[in-house]
């Protein structure tokens, strides 16, 4: 399969142009890898276009200080269902995620991370090695951590630390049954920050001698309840 990529130095150059408000035709700057049929992103584009329209309405209706996590969760679930069928060799290519960041998600980066961008912090949202920061990789991994569950993706208010520190950055995010159980617990019985971190530490230690990815939904829920 042929698919588009962007190199690490080049994506920073493109981002700088976008920050200046320049019109950039990213597809003219990308490199294609692989052979055969080209990757079809039309379904993803439909989701992204609809989400961008939703955001325009949201910005007009809400106070800028309103919690941005629910919108990020809805977008995460939406794109996950259109990317989970993409071949693994494409999803494993860092250049593909860089391409998506500047070709499909710059509008979201500009809104979600506006304060940090204003301070000159651009690289984290483009650097694929920072999985809990790079957009859209963090969106994909957020939804993947809970098996694409739309409601769980958006149901926890002010939950940046929960998703990035306790799911995306750690092994728990690779076990959807466990991720769903953890997110459901935090939705239904929100733990204070220190209690949540303590539970997460216990969960991370449990990985050292238990194959948690093999847990059923019932076993995962029981474990979370026990640790809580």
List the keywords.
mainly alpha, about 230 residues, two-stranded antiparallel sheet, globular, 2 strands
The proportion of residues forming helix, as a percent range, comes to 55-70%
Q: What's the tally of helices?
A: 13
Mean pLDDT: 95
For the record, the count of structural domains works out to: 2
**Lateral arrangement of strands in the main beta sheet:** 1-2
Taking the sheet with the most strands, its summary is: 2 strands, antiparallel
Global morphology: globular
Poorly predicted residue ranges: none
Strand content: under 5%
The value of Rg in angstroms is 18 Å
> In whole angstroms, how far apart are the ends?
45 Å
Strand-pairing-aware structural class: mainly alpha
**Helix-strand pattern, N to C?**
EHEHHHHHHHHHHHH
Find the count of extended strands (DSSP E, 2+ residues): 2
What would you note in describing this structure?
With 228 residues, the protein is mostly helical. The protein has 2 domains: 3-147, no CATH class; 170-228. Helices cover 59% and strands 3% of the residues. The protein has 13 helices and 2 strands, in the order βαβαααααααααααα. A two-stranded antiparallel sheet has the order 1-2. The radius of gyration is 18 Å and the shape is globular. The termini are far apart.
Short description:
This protein has 228 residues and is mainly α. The chain contains 13 helices and 2 strands, in the order E-H-E-H-H-H-H-H-H-H-H-H-H-H-H.
What secondary-structure arrangement, pairings included, does this model have?
Blueprint: E1 3-5, H1 8-19, E2 31-33, H2 42-61, H3 69-83, H4 88-91, H5 94-103, H6 106-112, H7 114-118, H8 137-145, H9 150-154, H10 160-168, H11 176-188, H12 193-206, H13 217-227
Antiparallel strand pairs: 1-2
């Amino acid at each position: 399969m042929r698919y588009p990529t962007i190199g690490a130095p080049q994506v920073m150059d493109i981002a700088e142009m976008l920050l200046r408000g320049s019109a950039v035709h990213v597809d003219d700057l990308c490199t294609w890898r692989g052979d055969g049929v080209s990757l079809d992103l039309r379904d993803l584009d439909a989701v992204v276009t609809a989400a961008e329209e939703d955001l325009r309405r949201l910005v007009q209706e809400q106070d800028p200080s309103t919690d941005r996590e629910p919108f990020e969760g809805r977008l995460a679930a939406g794109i996950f269902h259109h990317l989970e069928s993409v071949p693994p060799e494409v999803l494993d290519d860092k250049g593909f995620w860089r391409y998506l960041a500047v070709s499909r998600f710059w509008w979201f980066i500009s809104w979600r991370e506006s304060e940090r961008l204003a301070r000159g912090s651009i690289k984290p949202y483009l650097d694929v090695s920072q999985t809990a920061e790079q957009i859209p990789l963090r969106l994909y991994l957020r939804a993947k951590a809970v098996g694409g569950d739309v409601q769980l993706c958006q149901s926890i208010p002010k939950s940046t630390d929960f998703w990035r520190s306790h799911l995306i950055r750690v092994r728990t995010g690779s076990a959807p049954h466990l991720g769903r159980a953890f997110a459901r617990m935090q939705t239904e019985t929100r733990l204070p920050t220190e209690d949540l971190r303590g539970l997460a530490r216990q969960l991370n230690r449990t990985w050292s001698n238990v194959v948690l990815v093999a847990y059923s939904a019932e076993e995962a829920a029981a474990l979370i309840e026990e640790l809580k």
